[in-house]
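Worked example 2:
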Amino acid sequence: MIWKHVMLAAALAAGLASGQAHAQSSAKAAEQAAFLFTYDVDRGKQDAFEAGYAAHLQWHAAHADALPWFGWYVTSGPRTGLFVDGTFGVPFAAMDRRPDPAGDGADMEARVLPYAKARAYSAHVLWPEPSTVRSLEERQPSPVLDVYSPRVAPGDVAAFEAALLAAAQAGQTGKGALGWTWYRLAGGGDLGSYLVLVPRRAWADLAGRPADLAGLMAAAYGASPDQARAAVLVKGVEVETWSYKPKLSRLP
């Protein structure tokens, strides 16, 4: 989706330096990029948007695009109603190697953008050490994702990451029940921002889940003294729910 790539280049500038440093720290993590795009669907145009988007995915199929594209609607939180699409578990360079970029952009412009407005673009890199599942990298999306966006002051990033890693390492022998995937921001947002995805099948899965970050860490790794040390460095966490749309996704 080349029009995304062109606009993404400008959006990534805000987080480029941080993303490069993190990506260089782990060659494996550098090969596990994620790109996210969000859209405001025009009022009363959802059916037309979905038909156009599904047709655009067929364009990708016809051109043998190897990238997976996942689609969700935001169904709770301040951004309720937005459509989110993204590709996960790919090298950063894969975005540069997509087939027929000009044709991709033209098809998107003709089929989708008459019914929606592009809103935001961001790039992320998998942070494997604190992650306990990799459902999107394995192309096994859950019906629902709870999406947490922790924010840490740039000067506290090193201390926060050390504490979180210590909590994760302490849990190696007694991991908790919560599965989650952590991503560092590579570009398109504030420095010190993270993305945390928690797969869920139904509302019932929320029963008993902690509402605080230290409690979530304990649910993921088991109790340890490092949880409070990490949690106190977090300036804020926004939480929203994404509902997966198989008909607006393509997983080759």
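The chain has two domains: 2-126, 127-242. The chain has eight helices and eight strands.
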